Amino acid sequence: MIKDFVSKKPALFIFNILLSVVSMGSSAIGSVIFAYSFNALNQRNLAKFVQMNFLFFAFSILSDVTTYLSCVYSKK
User: Fold this and answer.
1) pLDDT on residue 1
2) pLDDT per position in the chain (76 positions), as tens?
3) How far apart are CA 7 and CA 12, in angstroms?
4) Cβ of 44: how many Cβ atoms within 10 Å?
5) Which phi and psi angles does 45 have, rounded to 5°?
6) 3-class DSSP state for residue 1?
7) What element of type H or E holds 4?
8) Would you call 23 exposed, middle or buried from its count of C-beta atoms within 10 A (0-12, 13-18, 19+)?
């Protein structure tokens, strides 16, 4: 199945791999930012906490969108 997908649509296969890498990377970055945001909250820096949570949500949305696209393109 994978061999057929790679041989018939190599560009789509490479695009799917790139989407997967972006998805996993943005998820990891979002998790690190989330940890730092709680550290800011412990230091009683509410403004930094809110800013970092917005970044966390942005990376989470990016991760979800790229994961969805990766799943959609892997079915084609």
Assistant:
1) 66
2) 677 777 887 888 888 889 989 999 999 999 999 999 999 999 999 999 999 999 999 999 999 999 998 888 877 6
3) 10
4) 8
5) -115, 85
6) coil
7) helix 2-8
8) buried
Q: Which residue has the tokens 């989330």?
A: 34
Which tokens in the block code for residue 68? 């969805």
Do residues 21 and 62 lie in contact, with contact meaning Cβ atoms separated by under 8 Å?
A: no
Instruction: Extract the tokens encoding 34.
Output: 């989330």
In degrees to the nearest 10, what's the CA dihedral of 17, 23, 26, 32?
A: -110
The pLDDT assigned to 37 comes to: 93
Amino acid at 30: G
Q: What is the DSSP letter of 32?
A: H
